[in-house]
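ok, trying the design again with the full structure, not the truncated one.
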């Protein structure tokens, strides 16, 4: 499951493959591991959106991730959601994507050079990322375990404000 993490709350739309209830419980367990208060967890259930995810490339280029990005932008720009502050995870190239903690420096410089509206988030507790992802048992398959181990996204994330 992919989650859209906002500074004050975690929001997710997660009924892909009809596993909405399973993924909802998984997200609650992951939030508990990460100590995100449950009152700050919000689930959006909209028939035209299935996953809230990253930027227009969707980290892996997955068509659902890209489509959801477009849906979120439309939701934000239709004027009905004025109180939502949305951020998108900046996708990186393949070398940076699998450079693990080495990408911390590149991400930091990218955020500085990009100016306002971009922030670099350093994960100081990478073990919690593994524990949180393990709560998503429906998706915690061997290749995702490798991804979490070697992905720079486990160690650092660059977010860009939408809008």
């Amino acid at each position: 499951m992919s989650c859209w993490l906002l500074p004050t709350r975690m929001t997710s739309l997660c009924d892909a493959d009809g596993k909405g209830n399973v993924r909802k419980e998984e997200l609650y367990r992951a939030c508990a591991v990460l100590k995100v208060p449950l009152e700050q967890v919000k689930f959006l259930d909209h028939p035209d959106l299935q996953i809230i995810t990253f930027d227009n490339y969707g980290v892996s280029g997955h068509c659902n991730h890209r489509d959801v990005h477009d849906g979120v932008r439309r939701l934000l720009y239709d004027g009905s959601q004025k109180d939502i502050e949305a951020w998108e995870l900046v996708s990186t190239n393949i070398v940076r994507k699998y450079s693990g903690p080495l990408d911390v420096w590149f991400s930091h410089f990218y955020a500085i050079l990009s100016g306002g509206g971009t922030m670099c988030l350093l994960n100081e507790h990478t073990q919690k990322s593994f524990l949180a992802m393990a709560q998503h048992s429906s998706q915690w398959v061997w290749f995702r375990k490798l991804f979490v181990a070697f992905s720079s996204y486990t160690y650092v994330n660059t977010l860009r404000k939408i809008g």
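Keeping the full-length input from now on. The helical segments are 20-34, 58-61, 63-77, 94-97, 103-114, 126-134, 142-150.
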